[in-house]
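Page 47, continued from p. 46.
Same chain as before, 150 aa.
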Amino acid sequence: MADIVAPDVRSRMMAGIRNKDTKPEMAIRKGLHRVGFRFLLHDKRFPGKPDLIFPKWRAAIFVNGCFWHGHDCHLFKWPSSREQFWRDKIARNQENDARAFGILRETGWRVALVWECALKGKARLDEPEILRKLTDWIRSGSETMTIRGS
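Result:
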């Protein structure tokens, strides 16, 4: 199926999509900062450049967009144009995620993943509940955690 907008318009639209400081990420950052946590942001020294890094707790949090990382939820739908391009791109993103998480775990870091669907859409969770889960996880010493929409 052909795209419904011109290639130059689509290019501008795609260029405008952020890969950091997204609304879901900002909600998590503001909430954790409000309860007293201090963290690093997108530090290139860490595999996958986690969205939030807590050196004191040896913990890293990724806030992933459901579309860009191919999450199996109501927010993800395979595009109908340039299908192979998108399948390859999303597969690469998933491989990069798995590699980064593995390296972080091997080097003694704890990793949490918050999916976009936990913060928006029909399956979203209550934001205070998400922040409580993250706060408990950071303090707990548990190795991994994933938060997704209900």
